[in-house]
Amino acid sequence: MILIKFKNIRRSEIIQQVVNDRIEGLVEKFEDLQSSRLKVTLEMKNSPTQAGPDLFSVKLHVIRGRYDGITIEKSEPNLYVALAEVIDHMLEVLNRFGDKVRVKERAKARRIKQYLEQVDEENQPEKIVI
Fold first, then answer.
1. Which residues pair with 39 in a beta bridge?
2. What is the CATH number of the domain that holds 76?
């Protein structure tokens, strides 16, 4: 489920559609996200006391599931650029997450193999040399 929250921005169907399309692309690549709840916060940050450009901030937070707790936030002068950067960074994070699991499983398998070889050597009868 994808929840989109607007802060200091008018709710727009076009923006919602773009965000949904981009997030659904992530969900297609990483099927474990289908059981997760994705919360996207779109916000315009500007200061009434200091003059300067407005910054659009996009925050993506994964709730529940395998990737629970992953949060990415990017700010840019353009909302769509910030969204693209969040999606790119999220792809990197999710790929790395999968690599960490794979590396841990391989290391565990190597330790088990070494242990079994060690036990097997200790239980071998001594060789008799004539």
1. 3, 61
2. 3.30.160.100
Residue with tokens 């990483």: 30
Tell me if 105 is assigned to some domain. no
Give the chain's length. 130
| pTM for the predicted model, two decimal places | 0.71
Dist. CA 114–CA 64, nearest whole Å: 36
Cα-Cα-Cα-Cα dihedral sign, residues 16, 22, 28, 32: negative
pLDDT in tens, 50-62: 667 778 999 999 9
If one counts the domains in the chain, the total is: 1
**Is the confidence at residue 126, as pLDDT, over 70?**
no
What is the span of the domain harbouring residue 28? 2-97
